[in-house]
Amino acid sequence: MDNLVKICGLSTPETLDAALSAGADLVGFVRYPKSPRHVSLDLGHRLSLQARGRALRVVLLVNPADEAVAQAVEAINPDLIQLHGNESPERVAEIRSMVKRPVMKAVGIAEASDLAALSPYAKGVDHILLDAKPPRTAEALPGGNGLAFDWRLLNGLDPKVSFMLSGGLNPDNVAEAIRLTKPRAVDVSSGVESGPGLKDPARIAAFIKAARTAFAAHH
Ligand SMILES: O=C(O)c1ccccc1N[C@@H]1O[C@H](COP(=O)(O)O)[C@@H](O)[C@H]1O
């Protein structure tokens, strides 16, 4: 998973087409009812068919029960499952063996000590996604808040740890984020929107172009 760009929270055929046409490597479908990007199983199924063979399809789940995992896998047939809640390393490994598909675990970063949370996941996941920790407010989502963390904190990360970077990325800052943190992949949701849940095709294209240029320069 090198030099890849993921566009997350796609919820219409038109914006999914914009992401695919602009060359997104991964496209994400959110299954979290409190999110403005939530897709029903039926819509997720149709979007997944549209993306098949053109990009890797990711389904995003938050602290899912077994039934929610099974329903999402059956309807959306994802290539990768993104777990974006407080799932323990044991629960992540359990879900991974249940679905027999690659799993990516999101870990929230706010301070240097948060990096210690990564190693317990090392054996039970396929990929790590680093995101900003969500604000401690009742209305905050577990992710998709458009908030960046201090990328310099990753100077303390073991260089052997590979990760996808997310959190507050947008077309204007993704090049600097890649230069500073050297991620294997980048992920964006709010930074390519014109309003909550409203993906903007021009911003999607600009993000992918900026990320590609930066990856070419820094890898
Ligand atoms: O996008 C959402 O609505 C969402 C809901 C619940 C958990 C995670 C969510 N999004 C993920 O959060 C990160 C950062 O997003 P942003 O670019 O800062 O808006 C990203 O991985 C999204 O996939």
From TrEMBL:
One of its GO terms (biological process) is L-tryptophan biosynthetic process. Pathway: Amino-acid biosynthesis; L-tryptophan biosynthesis; L-tryptophan from chorismate: step 3/5. Its EC number is 5.3.1.24. Residues 5-209 form the N-(5'phosphoribosyl) anthranilate isomerase (PRAI) domain. SUPFAM superfamilies: Ribulose-phoshate binding barrel. Pfam families: PRAI. CDD domains: PRAI. Keywords: Amino-acid biosynthesis, Aromatic amino acid biosynthesis, Isomerase, Tryptophan biosynthesis. GO terms for molecular function: phosphoribosylanthranilate isomerase activity. It catalyses: N-(5-phospho-beta-D-ribosyl)anthranilate = 1-(2-carboxyphenylamino)-1-deoxy-D-ribulose 5-phosphate. Belongs to the TrpF family. This is N-(5'-phosphoribosyl)anthranilate isomerase. It comes from Microvirga aerilata. The lineage of its organism: Bacteria, Pseudomonadati, Pseudomonadota, Alphaproteobacteria, Hyphomicrobiales. The gene is trpF.
